[in-house]
Amino acid sequence: MEEDINTLLDNKPEAMRYRRSLSTLIILGTGVIVFGFWGIIKLAAQLFFGIELFKPEDLEGFDETAKMIVTVLVFVFMAIDVILRLIVGLKAIREGREKKTGKGYLVICLFLIIVSAYSVYLLAADLINMEESFIDSFVAVFMELSSLVIALEVFIAGISVKRYKSKHIVRVN
User: What's the Rg (C-alpha) of the chain?
Assistant: First the structure.
């Protein structure tokens, strides 16, 4: 208990950065979860409003069975994305509340950062080439870029907290 009070009362820059990183993990962990569910909402809206998931030229030469398999794969990858974001978000929140967590969520977060960065690159290329409507492409780039920044911030804060804990041997419940 005394160690916890000392951590709270410690106003050294390193301790203040640690507490700020804890808050960041709680807030942005929630953001990671929200962006996971945003993907589902976007996909559901496309289906509800009858918006095509793929451009017709992307599926040229595919029969109906192959198109169905591709659509199912999109849903599977979307489910995996949501599950990974849920894991990262919940573990980040748990870490921010100073509960014991492993480093696995940071590895998953790094994977999400890489995938998100690649997605931003592809969406930006679509925006530059004006392959889609400008507004649709701009919103897609903005949303994916926001998701990337949040995941990056969670990763940085998570690393910062792990380093502080290993250096100062912070007791975790």
Answer: 20
Q: Where are the alpha helices (DSSP H) in 97-168?
A: 104-129, 134-168
Give the model confidence (pLDDT) of 46-90 as tens digits. 777 777 766 666 677 778 788 788 888 888 998 899 999 999 999
Query: What would the two tokens of residue 89 be?
Result: 């978000």
pTM greater than 0.90: no
The amino acid that residue 172 corresponds to is V
Query: Can you tell me the distance from the alpha carbon of 3 to that of 135, in angstroms, rounded to the nearest whole number?
Result: 53
Which residue, among 2, 39, 26, has the nearest Cα to 116 in the 3D structure?
39
Please state, in angstroms and rounded to a whole number, the distance separating the CA atoms of residues 137 and 120.
11
Distance CA 24, CA 156 (A): 10
Q: Which of 75-79's residues contact partners 24+ apart within 8 Å by CB, and which partners? A: 75/43, 78/39, 78/40, 78/43
